[in-house]
Every structure is written in C-alpha cells, then in structure tokens.
Amino acid sequence: MAPSVPQNPTPAQALALLPKLSDADADLRYMSLNDLYNTLNAGASTFLTNDYHTSAKIIDGVLQTLDDQNGEVQNQAIKCVSALVLKLPPDILAPFVHRVSNIQTKHSVDTSIPSTALRTFITAFPRPLPGLPPSGKSQDAYSAISRVLIPRLLGYIVIPHGLENLPSPPPGMLEIGSEKGANSDAVDVLIEVIRCFGPMLQDPEKQAFQKAIMSILDDERTGSVIKKKAVVAISILAVYMSDRLLSTFVSSTIESFRGSHLTLAKRRLLITMIGSLSRSIPQRLGPYLKTLAPFVLSALSEEEYEEFMEELAEDGAPNLEIEEVREAGLVALEGFLSSCSNDMRMFTDESIEAALRYVVYDPNTATDEDDEDMEGTQDEDGDDAETNGFDDDEEDFEEDAAMSDDDDASWKVRRCAAKALYAIISTRSNGDLLDNGILYDKIAPVLIGRFKEREENVRLEVLATLASLIRKTGEGVSLLSPSVDEEIDFTAEYASRSRKRRRVNSDAGTFDAPGVFSSSMGLSSPAPSPSPVSGPKADLARLSPAIVRGVSKLLKQNSISTKQASVTLLRDLVLVQNGGLSDSLGKVIEPLLDAAKSSGATTTGSASASVGGAAAASGSKMRIEALQLISAICDTHSSKVVAPYIGSIVPSIVTAIKDKYYKVSSEALLAIESLIKILTPPRSAGSEQQRKLHVGNIYDAISTRAVTTDADIEVRQRAIHALGVLLARTSGSNNLKLLTTTNKTKALGVLQDRLKNETTRLSAVKAVDLVVASAIDQSDVQPAWARGVALELGAQLRKADRSLRGASLAALRNFVSNSVVLASLDDDTVYNLAGMLLPLISSTDLNLLGPAMSILGKLVKRCPKKVVDTNLKNALCGVVLSPLGGAVFDSYLGLVKIIGDQAVGQPLMQGLLQNVGVSGDPAVVGKAIGTLLVSGGSTVGVKINDFVTELRSSKDGKRKCLALSVLGEAGLRLGSSSPLEPSIFMDHFHSKSENVPRAAAIALGRAGAGNINTYLPIILSNSGKAGNLQYLSLHSIKEILQHAGKAHSDISPYTKEIWTQLLVSSQAEDNKAIGAECIGRLTIIEPKTFLPLLQNYLQDPTPTIRGMVIQAIRFTFADSDEAFDEVLKPMLIKMLTTMLNDPNLENRRLALSTLNSATANKSDIVLPHLAQLIPLVMKESRINTDLIREVQMGPFKHKVDDGLELRKSAYETLYSLMENAYTRINPLDLFDRVIAGVEDEHEIKVLCNLMLTKLIVLDPEEMVRRLDAIAERFRAILAFKPKENSVKQEMEKAAEASKGVLKVTVLLHNAFPAASAAAANVQGQAWKGYWEWVGKEFKPQFTVVENEVKNQAV
C-alpha cells in the first residue's frame, strides 16, 4: 500500500483524489488512480455502501480516465474498476454497467477499453457454483448483468424483471455489422458472462445467447478469429444448458448437417463446434455421438477422399476449404476419441481408417498408397528393403521441404491425423486393441512408413505416436531381467562365492536376500530374450527391424528435435523388448554416439513440440537421452553384441563425464556403470589389453569426478557409486591386470573418506555395500580398511536420516555375510560393532530390527563370548515384550538359536524367565524360550521337566500358557526324540481359564508336527467329537498342517482321514474359518487329490459349504509352490468365475477376496485371463437398489444397504488389480467406477480417493480428461453439511471426507497445474471453477492440507 493511503480511509479521502484525475500531467493522473485503487482496497466492505454521492463521483472519474490518451492511465483505471465494483451500493451497479457499456471513446486509441472494463466488472465478483447458493455480491452483480448487460449485448430485453414499459435498449453489441460482422470484443464479454455467471443464467437467457452465437457462426462476414471465439462461447454455454435445451441444440445442429445448402465453411464450423463440445461436456454429449459422429466421419470418408483426388487430378491444385474441413474433422475426431471413448467404440474401425487415410495424405507428393501401407513391414533381405520408404539417394528432409508449396496446408491434416491415432492408442490399448493386434497390424506399419515425413511438426507427432504404442506394449513388464549369457562361464571363484553366499543367507534368516547384489551388479550377461510367440510383444518384435531402419535414417538428420525424438523412441523400443538391437546395432551406434557428443547445436525447423509433449528439444537434452539409450543397450544386450563398438563407446562416455553441464555428466556416469559391467568378468567384452586400457581411462575419469570439489553434488554422488561398481567388478586377484593394487587402494581410500562427508555419505555407503558384497579375497578389502569402514557404518546407524541408516545396515549385512570380509574384522571391532547395533534392537522400527538381528547372529558366531553380554541380553528381553511376528520374529528366533548353539545362552534364559516371563505375550515368549531350551541343551540351566512341573503345579493362567508354549516349541524342535506325551497338553483342554485351552491346542499341534505318528491319531480322534473339543482339535491340526507343509513331514497316511474330519468339523459356525484354513493347507500338501474335490464342491447346493471352499482356496495361494501351481493352473480361472457368479451375497464377497489374493500370489496364471474376470468385479462395484431396505428404528426409518460390504470388497479388489495389473484393465471403465465410488459410502469414498492418487501416476492423460467429473463429485462432498443433531461419528466422517477430498485436490493440482489456470479453454471449466472455489471457501483447511502434502513429499 502507498504511504499516502491511510489504514482506514473514508469516502472523503477518496473524493479528494478525484480532481487530480483531470490534470494535464499523465503521471499525476496515473498516481492519483493508483492512490484511489489502494484506497478502495483498504476500505471496509461498507466503505461506499450508503454514500451514493461519493460513489457517483468516483464512477465519473474512473469512466473519464477510461477514455484517457495515455495507455498506462487506462490500465490503472481498469484496475480501479475491479476494486470499485466491490464497494459500490448494489443499486448503482446496474447504472454503472450501463454507462460502461455505452462509453464512446474519443481520446483513446484502444477501442477495446469498454469491453475490457466490462470483463473486469464481471470477473471481480465471486463466481457462483452449480448446486450452491450464490453470495450476496454475486447476486447483486448478476442482477445488474441480467437487467443491463445482457440486453446491451443482445439488443433486446430477455427477462423484464417485473418492470413494464421499459425503453428499448440500443443496438446489441453482438449484432452483426454491415461490413465486418460481429464485434470481437463483445464476444469476449459474452464469454466472461457465461464463464462467471453461467450457473445463475436462466433458460431464456441461455436460449438467447445460443441464438446470438449461432447467428455469428452462420454469418459469412464474420472473420475466422471471431468464429473461433464463438465456438468457445457455445462450448462453455453448453456446460450450463439444461438437458432439454441441450437436446434442442443438438437436434438443430443435426438438422444443419442434413441441410441441403450446407457449405464447406458451414460444415467446418459445425464439426469444430461439436468437437469442442466433446471436450467441454463429454459425459452429456456422449449419448448423442451415435448420431453426430457419422457427420464427422463422413467428411473423412473414403468416398469424399476419392472425389477430392479426382478433382485434384483435374484442377492440379488442392481445395483449401476441403482441407480445412478435414483438419476440423480430425480435431473433432481426436476430441471424441479422447473425451468420449466408450461412446466411440461403435465407430472404432471408421475412426482408425480415417486417421490412417489422412496421416499419409500429401497431395504434393505422388505416392502409391498400397506400397505406403506396407512400408516398414518388409523383411530385411535386400537393398530394396533397406530404403524403408526413403529414397535410395537418402535425400535430406530439408531438400524435400524445399520442393513443397508455401501454401500447402496438408501437413496440418497429417498432424491432426497423427494426434487422432495417438488418442486411439492412449485410450484403447489396455486389454483392448493392443491385445487383439489391431494397433500393430493396422496402425504401426503406417506410422513407420511416415518416418519419411518432410514436415517436422508432423514427423514429431508420428514419432510420439509410435513411441506411445511401444510404451503401452511394455507397461507392467519388468524391463530388465538379467540372465546368464550362454557363452560366458563363471570363474570358479565367482561360482564358489555365489553358492557360499546363498548358504549363508539361508542361515541368516528372511532378511538376507540372495542374488540382489549380483543382479544389481550385472554379474550375468543378458542373453537375447526369447521371441514371444503371440501378443503385443510378438507384434513389436516383428516390426522392430523396420523401426530400427527408419530411426537410423532419422538420426542422421540435422534437426535436434527429430534426433531427440528418434533416440527416445529407440530407447523405449530397447527397454520394452529387453534388447532387440542384436542384429542392427551397427546401424544406429555411430549416429547415436554422435548425438551423445553433440553440443551447441540449435533446433531446426518448427520444433516447438517434442515427444510426449515435453519442452522444446535442446542439445543437452538430446545428449542425455542418447546416454540413457547407450546405457539401456549395454544393460539389455550380451557382451558379444556390444563388444565390436566398445572402442567407440568408451571415449564418448568418458568425454561426457567431463562435461561442464552437470546433468550430462551425471547421466554419463550412469552409462559408465553399464560399460563397466560389460568390460569386466564374467562378461569381459574385448581383448584383455583393450579392457585394461578402457578400465584405466574409466577409473581416471570417475575417480577425478568423485574427489573434485567444483563438481555438482549429484555428479560426485554418482561418481562415488560408479567407483564402487568398478571396484566390485574387478574384485579378486585375477583382475589385478584390469585395476592395479595401487589404484584399488586409492579408490578404497576415497570411499572411506567420502563416508565421513555429509553430502556424499549415502552414496559412499552404497558403494561400500557393492565392494564388500563382491569381495573374493583379502586383496579386495584390506583389514585396516574393513575395520575402519565397518565402524564408520556402525556410527551411521545413529544418524537421523532413515535412508542412510537402512543403507548402512544393508552394507553391514554384506560385511558379515561375506566370510572374506568378516575374517578381516578383529574381536574388538566385532564387539564394538555389536554395541552399535544394540539401539536398533527395539520395536520402534521393525524394518531395521530384522536385519539388525540377522547381523548380530553372524557376529555371535564370530565371537560369541564377547558379543553376548548383559547389554545384548537386556535388549533381547526388552524387544520380546512387544508383539513380534512374521519375518521379524523369525529373525529373533534365529538369533536366539545361534546364541544357544554357541553355548552362551544361560544369561539370556535367566533374563527371559525372570525379567520377561508372563509380562509378554506367552505365545511369543514361549517360542523364544523353547528355541533356546532345545538349541542350548544343558548349557542354559533349565530342563524340559522343569516346565512340565510348572505346567502341572501353577494355578496362574498366564504361567500355564507360557509353559504350554515352551513345551510345544520344544516338542516341535526335538521331533521324535521329544519325551512329551500328548496327554500333557490335552489335560488342559477343559481348563476354566479362557486362554489356556487354546494355548494347549496350539502347543499340541506344534509338538505333534515334530512327532506326527504319535500325536496325529489322537488329535483326529478328538476332532470327531462335537463342541469345544472339536474346535481345539482344528487348531492343533492347523499347526501340524502348517509345519508339515514346510518341513515335508510324511502325513500322507492320514490325509484322507484329515480331509473327512475337516469337512464334517467345518460345518459348525464357529469352525468355518479355521476349518477352511486347514482344508486349504491340506490341499497344498496333496493338490492332485484335493483340488479337483474343491472344484466340485463349488457346485454344492449348500451356500455354507461353497463359502467354506472359497475360503479354503484363498488360503492355498500364499504358501503354495510350483508343483501346486501346475495342478492349479488349468482350473483356477474356471473356479474364480464360478465363485464370482455365486448366487449367495456373502460367497461373492469371499470370492472377491479370493481373486484379490490370486492376483497378488498367482499373477502369472490370473493376469492372462483377467479380461474374463474384470467385468464381474466391475458389476459388484455398482450400487444395487434391490439390496437396499428400510428398517424402522423407533420413530425413524433407517436405510440399510446389504450390498455395502460386497461393494467394499469389489473396490478393494479393483485397487489391488489397479496396482498389479493396470495395463490389463480398461482405463475408461476403471475411471468410471472410481469416480462413481467417490459419492458412495464413507469407506468406499476413502478408498476411491486413494485410487485417484495412484491413477495420477498410472494414467495422467486420462486423469486430465476426468478432472471436470471429479470436480463435480468433490464439490458435492465439500458442500455437504451434517445436520446439527448428527451424532459425533457422522460429524467425524464428514470432516474426514472433506479432508480427503482436499488432499486429493492438492495432489491433482500439483500434478496438473495448467488445468487449474484461468486460461480460456473449453475443457476443464468445472475443475478451474472448483479450484478457485476451494481456495476461497476452504482456505484455512486447504492451507493445512497443502502443508501436510509438502511435508509428506519431503
């Protein structure tokens, strides 16, 4: 605010500024207006409400300056209008609009000032929103607009507002003049009226606007710019049309298409208009497309094309009006395909044919269409095939372009056709046209043939479209899957080390992942991927040679945009195929290396667009893309393929590493890692002398980058990681020729030094991880270095950075897993390292707890008496008080077993008995004590009989449970040598304690799993008895089956008897869940016997039996093996289909849960047949009104939805499928269901919000198209206000729903900021209005959510 403006100005102070507005000095007039603007903004909302005199004076002054000769003064006057109208008395608004709309500019050069002032007036007020009451100021503004501005625009009064004998308004601003047609500024005002006050417009006003707009479009004198604005106006107006008005409008449009006097210009406008409507109101226009789409497709039909070509042959020059009609038709077709995809399914063939017809349309070039259709599919068997549609003399595109006519506009038609093909690929690929081969059979060959396109804008669209198809082919596929090169033998050292590490990991527990490091290190050389027999990848493989031939030509062009798009296309091709250049690498490697070395080049041609809609191409961007492609080639092709070109590749990458631009240097360091893997064993491309030279050059480059201080931090971090890769790949004494001992020592010193630097610490930890994981002998890790680094890694465990702690723990895991490295650590280092790990032995972070205990287990083996001290004992006793389970608990038991095996378990046993005892969960503590009891034997100070005595003598239920758990675990581990009899456990089945019988049953089962012949017959005899004894026996059987399946114990003599007993026992209501799990586990053990029986039981007439079978089948998926899968594969899909069609509601819910589990655990069986199952899931996600009933609750009636739980399960299944198999789901159907779910019950609403956040990443293009529909649902949720007498739960649900919507809103805005901008675009109007409304009406809550999203991102 200006210093001269007071904090609380009065009308008199504003009045005092007006005389200066007539001053001769323009600067003084400007400053006065500026002070007036600040005064109006600083004034209270009632500043001028009751001061009509001052208001009139200010209006006079502002209107006077609107006609000022100085443009800056006029602009400041416009700003004053926006501040003034919010302070004026409501009664003065209408006269103000009248005066502004009738300004006659005498001094101003800019004649658009009146319309600019009117638009400022309109946009100054809060926008009303559909379904919500407008604010008082909006109501006042609309009243003035309806009474004054709309009649002024149209030239007649539309709604009298109760007034009679009103004078006729002056000629309308939208009336078409005698010479120039309609006024462009008036159309701008009309657009703002509709955009800002559309929800408040009444039907007569909408009809009048529609009539005025159509008259503008029909008039031949109106210029094309104004007609385009009129199309925008009608598209925005359609958003607010009632269904009746829209139907009438569409009917009149259809009649116009059918009119006998339809000119080309009129036809183009009608096509443009419905194309624009498809973007502004896709859901409402969709049902009309079955009538409207044929009019557009007829303009692109084969018949009209033939007629045009005949006329062209006669006249020799194309008709530009016809080309404009085609361009409009293709733009409209793209809008139909992208915005109304489901409604356009019936026109799929016609749409594809039209787009293909005009993507090759080039009247200035004589071509044979039949040949062109086949281009790109010829075999590479001769010189003719090498041309791939290019001239034999390999003319540059620039030379072709020189022959084109300056007036040739056919390139616009081709570009629009390519965009239409892009829309088809982006909306109809997943589970649709991609799977049935149409995209590759019809579209891809034509796109490849258009690589020879002479206009760069079109060529870029063609490349982008084909790249999109390739990416769609590879979605959901694991791109890099290393496999062993058949021609490369591992050395004995590598093989021995690999086998040894696998054995160590299996002992260490679940948290050791064998093969992770060898895969990431690229120890195996990729073999050529087997060519798929059928499907999209097979189609791509068939066309791949033609694509590579075409791209190799494009890479030689001068245009950076074309080269960059070609490199991107080639990279996508390589990644999707996991190779694919084995036979043609020589064609692309030279131009590719040239692109990687190019710098300082400029963009040629009209290359404002680039592949994927990214920013304009640049030399550096192209170099980065080229380096990424080189890296992908090295990672996906065998050494034999790449070896001939290593001599050219290495110098290029080394040069790029030294580049001053950090992004190029950083990408080059990633590429050099791939080269290191090729040059070093076991891949070893090239001769030994060449490899030594190249490795030396690489070492010099990356070591310099790792230590230099003037390099960007990202470059240094990647250089450090590359150094780790180099050291890891040259490990072993046999590789000293590649990397000398001196250089290796220096490199290890660099890594140790970088560990102490905060900015490079994390990269150094990961590099050390690679080095110690790959160490073969003492030459790889010197003892002093190993001890220092190990302690430094241990020190990192105290840091606050969680990613650093996790990486340090992973590195330490490899330290202790590799016997060579572990031998380098002395006892003191091991002891200190164990002490550094103790703070992690806590339940506060279970992700770190498991690996930490695995590492401690190795350290205990290395130095048991020193490591197992009081501190470790207290930590282990403390952590077992928490509820442990799963892999973490397995690691805990593994550590306890190691302590017992090393005969140092007595202090821990005393701690568990005295300090823990019954304070923790008896099941958890008992397993720990039982494990230690068996592994420690006589060294732990207690015997099994002590616990038997405790069980019999103790009267405390918790102590009995603990003793039972200990004895059950001991019986399991002792096996047949166990002295325990079943009666010890069964005597407690009838205990009065609530928990003891169940603990006894579980302990009986665990002990029985170790001694089946003794225990199982007794358990089966009890399972036939009704009541609680049967229930407890099922728990025992479950434990036996669970361990029998893992240990492969021989229970085959008892399986049939178990099956029979389980079928009988599971009929009881309390036994269903446990019985189903037992049946499932038994089926895993003998799938050939019991899976067919389960399939037959799915047809049983009893719903409870079918439900039990469905649950049993679900239990089989998580723990089964390959033998089970072989039996399951032929029958799974049929079983799932039967389940999902079950007439019982609860059984269908269980079936959805079973499908969810099958997708997660048996994806290779389920996913190829997902198209049969998805419609059944979609069906259950819809609200079934037949399942909604009214229940009388006192004086109130309450609706109960019996289908809610089923719908929740359907949405949970859709969520799982979306994450695991999105490429096999039709995105249009999925988006429909997710958006519909936003309005469903609270639990479904929350899940759908989460799905929307995932879909932002999975399918951003479709998400942008759905923003308007999402905005409508979100606005309804935020506008909902619970009743004042609502219960607390309902209030909390409403608040949570609003917060969830606001969070998704922020995420959507962050992902698509352009969609929330206020640009004049017919698509996204609802989202823009919603975004502005949320920012104003929910500012406090919105700010909180924005901060939460930012913090989560950080």
Strand order of the largest sheet: 1-2
- Derived from helix and strand composition plus strand pairing, the structural class reads mainly alpha
Q: How many individual β-strands?
A: 2
Main beta-sheet annotation? 2 strands, antiparallel
Could you list the spans in which at least 5 consecutive residues all have pLDDT below 50?
A: 367-405, 477-520, 600-617
In whole angstroms, the N-to-C terminal distance is 35 Å
The DSSP helix count reads 68
Q: Percent of residues in beta strands?
A: under 5%
- On the 0 to 100 scale, the average pLDDT is 84
Shape: globular
How helical, in percent, are the residues?
55-70%
Provide the gyration radius in Å.
Answer: 38 Å
Give a verbal description of the structure.
The protein is mainly α. Among the domains are: 100 residues; 151 residues, no CATH class; 88 residues; 121 residues. The chain is built from 68 helices and two strands. A two-stranded antiparallel sheet has the order 1-2. α52 runs parallel beside α54. The longest helix is centred in the N-terminal third of the chain and has 24 residues. The protein is globular and about 110 Å long. The two termini are 35 Å apart. About 7% of the residues have low confidence. Belongs to the CAND family. Keywords: Repeat, Ubl conjugation pathway. This is TATA-binding protein interacting (TIP20) domain-containing protein. One of its GO terms (biological process) is SCF complex assembly. Pfam families: TIP120 (PF08623), TPR_CAND1 (PF25782).
